[in-house]
Amino acid sequence: MPPLRRCRFGVPGLDTILHGGLPAGRLYLLEGQPGSGKTTLSLQFLREGVRQGERCLYVTLSETAEELREVAGSHGWDLKGIDLFELSSVEEVLGEGRNQSVFHSWEVELGETVRLIKQEVERLEPVRVVFDSLSELRLLAQDPLRYRRQVLALKQFFAPRSATVLFIDDLTSEGRDRDTHLHSISHGVISLERFALEFGAARRRLQIQKMRGATFLAGYHDLSIQTGGVEVYPRLVAAEHHIEFGNEPTLSGVPQLDALMGGGFLRGTSTLLTGPAGTGKTTLALQYIGAACARGERCHVYEFDERIDTLVKRAEAMGVNLVRFMEDGLLEITQVDPAEMPPGEFAWNVFQAVQEKHCTMVVIDSLNGYLSAMPQEKHLLLQMHELLAFLNQSGVTTFLINPQFGLVGSMDTGPLNVSYVADAVILFRFFESQGRIRKAISVIKNRSGKHEDTIRELFIDSKGLRVGEPLADFRGVLTGTPEFLGNEGPLLETRDA
Known about the structure:
Largest sheet: 9 strands, mixed
CATH class of the largest domain: Alpha Beta
Strand content: 25-35%
Structural class: alpha/beta
Number of strands: 24
Helix content: 25-40%
Shape: elongated
CATH architecture of the largest domain: 3-Layer(aba) Sandwich
Number of domains: 2
Distance between the termini: 77 Å
Number of helices: 16
Strand order of the largest sheet: 5-4-6-7-3-8-9-10-11
């Protein structure tokens, strides 16, 4: 069969989901509750048609032309090139001062409404049409059978004209058969949803319920309404993105640390840095970021917990100049507010950083903040698994920072246990020696190769990050209560002094 001619929607993420756009010359249903983004999405659909030199018509039975212009103005748009046909009052349908007594008023209103719409379409011969909304047509019809007949008549009217038609339904009318009827008539169905969380901004998402004779990316996809229109974030499918890359190791610039990892991390692997707060997890990740940027690689840090200014100053104190790398375009640090950014948008941002900006190293700090972005915990691990699979297949070295609950004593990983999806796990611990609080580092697993099974001291100061010799008299690290028993020989900072 010849390929379908696609009608681009004008929303990049939605066109990606639709594999290029809607099959042209068909009738589609765009449904969703009030506030889910239907009007804005419809205007973007028509504006894309104007950009392509197509005649576009917006038929409105629910909103006035002035209200539509206000919506467009809030996004910095004008409606130039879009024909607005407004039927928002009875007088416009029947004519002011006209009375009748033979037929029911709703019978005359419905017939006149449909007649005027057909007349306008025949006059303009548009390529794209938005009909807003079916709820008003349903109210005029009064009877479900009469309403279904009118919708079928409109479909048959548009069919020979090769117009791509978007019917809008706000789901405000009652009746369990409504969805079944409209879905069976429509060539495709796009459903928008809006739901509120216990805290934070309301979330929106969409799904393609059907699309006859065309492929699309199934499932739910997050969306947001911002100044400039609706943005859609396609669900990430790792299997569709794979590139060839070398297996050379990623080095930190600290020989002892690379030796601890058996020669460094391989590209295309993910590493979980876990331990209590203050043990050096973020600092170690920044050490790898600084070394990668110094080699000319592009890196991206997603910061959920710490302010960017604090992060930059902390790195500068240990000799890593992140500002210079940011000015050179090698490093980008994004402050993420989990109360405002849905997880689908975050995954899409990571996807674009890798695909468009060619990032080779990504740091997510921390998973606790990422968990806050997903109120349904049962879906978070699946999404994290898909995100890591995409990063691994793209040759990206990923660091996941997972603060454990508690500072000393027994540790708890919290509600999110992602250690099994990571390729390597590095454990950080506090320990006590000669009345001092010290830090220890050890490698729990490394799927990409061998690694040391020793526990070494970790020291961070103005000289940077340093790793000491194995602590042979160190025990209790796996129980969460590490203890150093030896008293012979100096520790790391004593030896350096």
